[in-house]
Task: inverse folding
């Protein structure tokens, strides 16, 4: 499981993360940020494979990926 954090105020709507995400889980929002750009948003974070293509492609360094700890067993 991965957490995708996009700084919407940093985004310039270039669309590179949208184009290069192999899971097609990023799109540009219809909302605008303070600079007047439509920021990238993640539409189904549960499908992220953590490939970091979006992080590498973003020219403005707006995206961070976190690996979430997964519960592998429980006796509760
Ligand atoms: S890490 Fe990979 S799969 Fe996840 S949002 Fe970024 S490009 Fe898409
Ligand atoms: S690559 Fe970066 S600047 Fe371009 S749309 Fe994605 S988050 Fe915004």
Result:
């Amino acid at each position: 499981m991965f957490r995708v954090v996009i700084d919407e105020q940093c985004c310039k709507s270039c669309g590179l993360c949208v184009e290069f995400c192999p899971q097609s889980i990023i799109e540009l929002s219809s909302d605008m940020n303070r600079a007047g750009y439509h920021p990238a948003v993640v539409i189904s974070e549960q499908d992220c494979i953590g490939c970091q293509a979006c992080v590498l492609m973003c020219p403005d360094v707006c995206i961070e990926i976190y690996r979430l700890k997964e519960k592998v067993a429980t006796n509760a």
